[in-house]
Amino acid sequence: MRPCVPPGELLRAVQAWWPNRASQPEFVSEPPGSHLGSGGPLEGSTLHNQPSSSPHAAATGYPPAPWTMRGQVYMSVWSVPVYRCSVRVDPVFEPVIAGGRLFVTGAFVTYEPGSTLTYGELAMNLVVKQRGVRRYGAVTPLIWVDSEPSLRGGRALWNLPKEMARFELDRTPPGGGFTGAAWDERERLLGKARFELLPGLPRRVRLPFSLPDLYFKQGQVCETRDSFSTSLRLLGGAWSIPEDSPLAALGLAGQKPLLSFWMRDFALTLPAATPVADRRTSVR
Asked: 179 exposed, middle or buried (CB, 10 Å; 0-12, 13-18, 19+)?
């Protein structure tokens, strides 16, 4: 499990640590139907491993935990005024608020060959506190994938509200970096993001904090004791989120990320969610 950061220190830590924020790129809107970047989509971004032939996979349509995952994460972090966010989380949690702001992360993820499943993902998290207990973490109220087995497994093993989406993911735009876009099953644009390598930023960094992932499953707060390793690099990041996108409910429209980074060649072993030690989590 990753260590928690005291919530009162979160905003100060991010603001003090992120250098040269003014140099982040602006997102330039593209005409409908245009392609992101000049390179092709990531190999495997729409091709997925099928569930294994084990009895469990045959019966459920998804691989059993633990899932071994490899790939890339392109993530941004926002500090959003509370009044702008209308997304709700399970009642057992409450958003962590500092200076009238809450904290949102958004990421495009590519799970690559060598993973239990290979697929694309768009995940949006909120930093939260468990009510009545000094336990902090991140919950995922919005998440999309382009793999049916991932959707089924995410819902069953971690109670993640996964939905299906279509992605265009490109790691070969001019100058390096990454571009990503996602559309839901109705072909509604969820959002676009562009991440750029910027001169003057350190090639490798260590984040000043980390948060565990929390889940609410079968009336209990759960977590995963996962194994995670990666190499971090700071990037410039810009997002474009339509007003009719579910992501707009997070209050991100017109908001610049505090920071953006690349979790390069990550390795993750993700077990099933299990109840935390403190069992005082039932919602009555």
From this structure: buried
* C-beta atoms surrounding 189 within 10 Å: 16
Q: How far apart, in Å, are the Cα atoms of 108 and each of 105, 237, 261, 274? A: 10, 12, 11, 26
pLDDT in tens, the chain (284 residues): 343 444 444 455 444 444 444 444 444 333 333 333 333 445 434 444 544 556 777 788 999 999 999 999 999 999 999 999 999 999 999 999 999 999 999 999 999 999 999 999 999 999 999 999 989 999 999 999 999 999 999 999 999 999 999 999 999 887 779 999 999 999 999 999 999 988 766 666 665 556 789 999 999 999 988 888 888 889 999 999 999 999 999 999 889 999 999 999 999 999 999 999 744 444 44
Helices and strands, counts by H and E, the chain: 3, 13
Phi-psi region of 159 (alpha: psi -120 to 50; beta: other; left: phi over 0): left
CA distance 191 to 174: 20
**CB of 123 closer than 8 Å to CB of 110:** no
